[in-house]
Structure prediction request, 320 residues.
Amino acid sequence: MKRLFHAAALALMAVAASSCFAGKFMANYALNFEPHGVADIERTRHKADSLMPGSTAWYDSLKTIGVLKDTFMLGYNSVKIHSCYVPAKEPAKAQGTAVVVHGYGDNHYVFLYLVRMYRDRMNYNVVFPDLQYHGYSEGDHCQMGWFDRYDVEKWAEMGHNIFKNDFMVLHGVSMGGATVMMASGDELPPYIRAIVEDCGYSQVSTQFYGNLRDSFPMVPGDVILSASFVTKQKHGWSFIEASSVKQLKKATLPMLFIHGDADDFVPLKHFRRNYKAKKQGYKEFWIAPGAVHANSYQKYPYLYEAHVATFLDRVKTQNL
Prediction:
């Protein structure tokens, strides 16, 4: 996601005098990045291994024996979307089902460390989709989680139909964290029992504006408003309405919020706004000392897993 504000800097300053043109440029650059598909999957295989060594070999081995499967369906706006799913390591003793949601510019491959955590160590079934315009999913732009939440809810339904259990957790990182928070305010089925969000932003406009101000203070902030208007006209949603805070105000499910206190990309103030916005139902948080953006697991793998496992056990045993 950091690449959003780097290569575009000079171009944005050059066109800043024309807010409309700059808005079109920014909307296109932010939401229509590198091509997705097979090339995207291959590009990120090494990233999965850098986050947890051996991830791609583990993934490939499960596919070879037919345990890990691919599936496609029609998602929001009848777009063809892709997901993988895998049963728990001991299916007869499965603790539930986890839906793991990736971040901006990533795909189902990148967060294999969470898939392995849930499947191999916590004995959960796992569904891990590609959001629209990512991985093998189709789509004409990155939706920043806003409409993606509808696809995640459909994948949750699919996972429930396959695995036939009634305890499901939605777990997302970065844009995936924002996606599951955005879903939290919808009317969700009773089998979705908990949500874990890791370093998700509070609102798309706030995130884009903050990154623009930090990196390029000479570029006018109204470029973001113009890009939001262009996105609304072209894709039917705006940066302002794509809000985790707005959805969290309606959320009632138990939630665990995770954030690194050294995150300078989605700063800790986003966590504070999100956590404050959720006023109904159980909530808890863990701030990972010294962790930068989407780095809490890599910095503290055992502690991360312990926080997630303890939270989910508390939801179950206390019927939160």
